[in-house]
Amino acid sequence: MEMHNHFHDGGSVTPAIDAAKSASIDFHIREYQHSPNADSYGLEAVQKLGLHPEQVFKTLVVSDDNSLFVGIIPVSNQLNLKLMAQVLGVKKVRMAEKRRVDIITGYLVGGVSPIGQKKRLPTIIDTTAQGFKTIHVSAGKRGLEMELSASSLQRLTDAAFALIAT
Predict the structure, then answer these.
(1) Cβ neighbours of 4 (radius 10 Å)
(2) What residues contact 37, with CB distance under 8 A and at least 6 apart?
(3) Taken in order 62, 64, 65, 68, is the CA torsion positive or negative?
(4) pTM exceeds 0.85, yes or no
(5) DSSP E strands: which ranges in the chain?
(6) Which domain holds residue 113?
(7) What CATH number does residue 79 fall under?
(8) Is 103 part of a structural domain of the chain?
(9) pLDDT (tens digit, 9 = 90+) per residue, 56-108?
(10) Contact 135, 153 (CB under 8 A)
């Protein structure tokens, strides 16, 4: 599959794009006009780019009481907090506070990429990602998606695959 790293406006480079470039993986950037009143960032990407919801993954940040963790799941699903806690080997997790997510990842909620976060957090990718040739994740800003293989995503994030979505 031929992939090009091209940017329509020349300036939308994010830490995620930098990280993918320096790891020399194949990726493709897709841009769309983000509308501020969209209900769900992931589903907006699905509609505006004409993608399958099972192939577009959202990046969710959860917390036990001390640490933050990242779950990457299809936008069509919900994160199962029980399964996530089990996989991580912690008692329980809940969704992390937005402000903390922004500070720790260096991205704004709605544009949190699993790649190139300020601090590398333990990351779990839902196993369904392995069923596709490529998947889409946020490239680090609303309206910017990165298409890459699940194995490239795993390499860039040191992630484990597990069933975490329901």
Answers:
(1) 8
(2) none
(3) negative
(4) yes
(5) 28-31, 57-63, 68-74, 94-95, 123-126, 135-141, 144-148, 160-162
(6) 15-162
(7) 3.90.960.10
(8) yes
(9) 999 999 999 889 999 999 999 999 999 999 999 999 999 999 999 999 999 99
(10) yes
